[in-house]
Design a protein that fits this description.
By secondary structure, the protein is mainly alpha-helical. The protein has 3 helices and 2 strands; from the N terminus they run H-E-H-E-H. Helix 1 runs antiparallel to helix 2 and helix 1 runs antiparallel to helix 3. The chain has a domain of 94 residues. Strands 1-2 form a two-stranded antiparallel sheet.
Amino acid sequence: MAGRLDDYLRFHETALSLRGQRQQLLASNIANADTPNYKARDVEFTSALQGALARPSQGPTALANTNLAHQAGGAETGPGGAPLLYRGTVQGSVDGNTVDMDVERNQFADNAIRYEAGITMINQQIRNMLAAIQGQ
């Protein structure tokens, strides 16, 4: 029974977790708007969500470095194991920074609204379950 409840809420739980991680990434871009040579990063949410849902729920397995000469493996990944992408520049800056505050604020607000929508969906699912349990 608990497995079915987990499956029922898993999609929105995973989506909220990824939205929270993406919000941190976007906030990092905004915080580094004046950092020379900082490259704005983002993740494609759809592929991150698909990757997170495809993986088992026990979490990612980290590679162990048993020798200091070992190299870090693979590309840097973001939420859900999706690769972190560099945001393209609309207007370049003299110091090499690629953060466009208008784009970042827009993405930040869009992600926040979608996060709130996800919370609303989970609340509705819980209300529906309670109504079914209570027979209302």
